[in-house]
């Protein structure tokens, strides 16, 4: 594993969310949980935003308790896609950027980037349910 880039997904899902109309009523909560899965990546970087191949629109920023760096909020700009991400520098090591993704994209990646693909190839994924 490269010492400059670390990836720690909080939870993961590689398949798109199922349609509610095809699920029995008692499984709707499972589909809702799948839409809100999260991944968190910690990357040692001088820049805050990792190019992941998707287009993002910033919709907010706020100060966070016990951290001098603000947290920025983004939505995927693809029409109908509800994926969000948050970006913030680590409070104890300002060279580390924590990027948290929520949801599953409803469309293919717009452009592949070697840097992001390299990160995914070189790191182990750890999953936890929130």
TrEMBL record:
Q: Which domain of life is it from?
A: Eukaryota
Q: Give the signal peptide range.
A: none
Q: Does the keyword Hydrolase apply?
A: no
Residue ranges of every copy of the WRKY domain listed in the record: 45-110
Q: Where does the record say this protein resides?
A: Nucleus
- A GO CC annotation given for this chain: nucleus
Which Pfam families does the UniProt record give?
Answer: WRKY
List the residue ranges of the region (Disordered). Answer: 1-23
Name the residue ranges with Low complexity bias.
8-21
Among its keywords, does the record have Transcription?
Answer: yes
Q: Which GO terms describe its molecular function?
A: DNA-binding transcription factor activity; sequence-specific DNA binding
Per UniProt, the keywords (alphabetical) are: DNA-binding, Nucleus, Transcription, Transcription regulation
Q: Which InterPro entries match?
A: WRKY_dom (IPR003657), WRKY_dom_sf (IPR036576), WRKY_plant (IPR044810)
Q: What is this protein called?
A: Probable WRKY transcription factor 75
Give the organism the record lists: Vigna radiata var. radiata
């Amino acid at each position: 594993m490269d010492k400059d880039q670390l990836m720690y997904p909080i939870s993961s899902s590689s398949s798109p969310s199922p349609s509610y109309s095809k699920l029995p009523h008692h499984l709707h909560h499972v589909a809702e949980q799948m839409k809100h899965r999260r991944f968190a990546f910690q990357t040692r970087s001088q820049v805050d935003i990792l190019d992941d191949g998707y287009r993002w629109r910033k919709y907010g920023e706020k100060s966070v308790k016990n951290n001098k760096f603000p947290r920025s909020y983004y939505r995927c700009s693809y029409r109908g896609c509800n994926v969000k991400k948050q970006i913030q520098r680590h409070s104890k090591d300002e060279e580390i950027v924590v990027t948290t993704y929520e949801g599953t994209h409803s469309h293919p990646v717009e452009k592949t980037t070697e840097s992001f693909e390299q990160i995914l190839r070189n790191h182990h994924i750890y999953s936890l349910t929130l």
